[in-house]
Amino acid sequence: MLTHQKLKEGYKENQDMGNYKKSEQTKAIVMETALELFRAEGFAETTMRQIAKKAGIALGTIYIYFKSKEELVLEYYQKVQQELLLQTSVDTQKKPYRLEVGLKDFFYLQFKMLEKDKKFLSALASAAATPDNPVSPFGKESKHIRKLHMEMLKKIVDNSKTKIHPKVQKELPELLWFLQMGLIFFWVHDKSKESVKSIEMTDTTVELIGTFLKIHNKPFASGLRNSLLKIIKNLVSIVDET
Amino acid sequence: MLTHQKLKEGYKENQDMGNYKKSEQTKAIVMETALELFRAEGFAETTMRQIAKKAGIALGTIYIYFKSKEELVLEYYQKVQQELLLQTSVDTQKKPYRLEVGLKDFFYLQFKMLEKDKKFLSALASAAATPDNPVSPFGKESKHIRKLHMEMLKKIVDNSKTKIHPKVQKELPELLWFLQMGLIFFWVHDKSKESVKSIEMTDTTVELIGTFLKIHNKPFASGLRNSLLKIIKNLVSIVDET
DNA sequence: AAATATTTATGAACATGTTCATTTTTACTT
DNA sequence: AAGTAAAAATGAACATGTTCATAAATATTT
After folding, report:
1. Could you say which DSSP state residue A116 is in?
2. Smallest CA–C1' separation from A49: which nucleotide?
3. Which of B129, B189, B224 minimises the CB distance to A238?
4. Which residue, B124, B197, B214, B85, is CA-closest to B162?
5. Mean pLDDT of B147-157
6. pTM above 0.85, yes or no
7. A-side interface with B, Cβ within 8 Å?
8. What is the band of B139 on the pLDDT scale with cuts at 50, 70, 90?
9. What's the gap in Å between the CA of B59 and the closest CA on chain A?
């Protein structure tokens, strides 16, 4: 009786569920099957019935583990980002680096990890644009993953040997987060071979940031600097209050 | 026989259809009804069946005039942009203006015209993010409206009294187009009263551009300038080849 | 005016994401 | 081991965007 009670409470307390083997296994199978199909056919082209059939389960079962079709993609994306975080932690521990280099490496790595899934990740891009969609990276449901990103970017900035004005350094990760959103958006649309265009774009934007940081303390750049800081504040306010 | 032949060909040649009164009328009714419902209930909440019922027609009839639910929104959006173009032509004819002022007015006007439809215009924002969606402003199906925008922005830039390096002046409208996309995206997500945040954001970004233009010919700004030009080229290449 | 062709309209049928009442399986208690 | 409670699974039913074969209305030709 008591044991039972405890277990039940445990369920409600820790979100992650899955204390039972069976369910975890089923969930994993659904996920794997879905990814296979998404990769082979695309997101829109894959039906939930197909997934269920191939996974050898009933249609409704999928919905026990995933709130929607989109959430299948989101959860996978989060998993990849988790790996990215780990990798980044390792990288920033290595020998001193210029911020530009650190950022490029970070973005490149991300592209590389997502490359094979580009096709269906556009489903997320679409969701991103709809504010009220629970899957949107701007919404409150994605706060967790946003924090994750911010953490990574802050680490990259703080651990670089590039000297930055404290005020700017504090806001930079936010700016970079939006930059990253933009780059991913660009990348999703990018049909060039092996996403070379996105790589190029990354180089150029990172260079722009580098150039800016080089001059951002000079008197003549105060206007630019202040405008930029304001813009960042505005951007953040939208994401934070949604 | 000859007349008939001509008419038939005429149909194929000019896209705009609707040489017949009845059809034009029906189309207009569908459009109006749809907008009413979208405004009252929202885009996702309104069903095609509701529209048909309220318009007093059959469900299938809507699809004679609009390829999809989203296209209802797109066509309306295009109509508004048409008006905007007219208004802008008038504005740029007026007394000399600083580019910043011209841009702000342009963006403000746009917000104002779209304000009452913000709720359902997010449907377009969502479509925008999906490259293969025929309704996306980045896709080839929207070339027309993109050109329209570019035209407006070029007019605003060229007619302003602000002096700009020719190389920059040529690329500036492209940059501004992307800025506009960004601002509209921001605006769609913006839940502040009367979209004051978007106005603020507009001010700040336009100011940034102004500040940049003030220094963009100075030797120390050549790095920034070149990076920016490259970024624009990259952005454009994505849109143009899709 | 009759015949024909074209345009416009219809609504049942379809596809697919999602929900939910019901059943089966699993875990726990006595 | 039997009984019970919880978890997991099921698939029919639902909602809704879209299609399509068919019919009605309209315009054109003879």
Report:
1. G
2. C16
3. B189
4. B214
5. 92
6. yes
7. 122-123, 125-133, 138, 185-186, 188-191, 197, 200-201, 204-205, 207-208, 211-212, 214-215, 218, 220, 223-224, 227-228, 230-231, 234-235, 237-238, 241-242
8. confident
9. 24
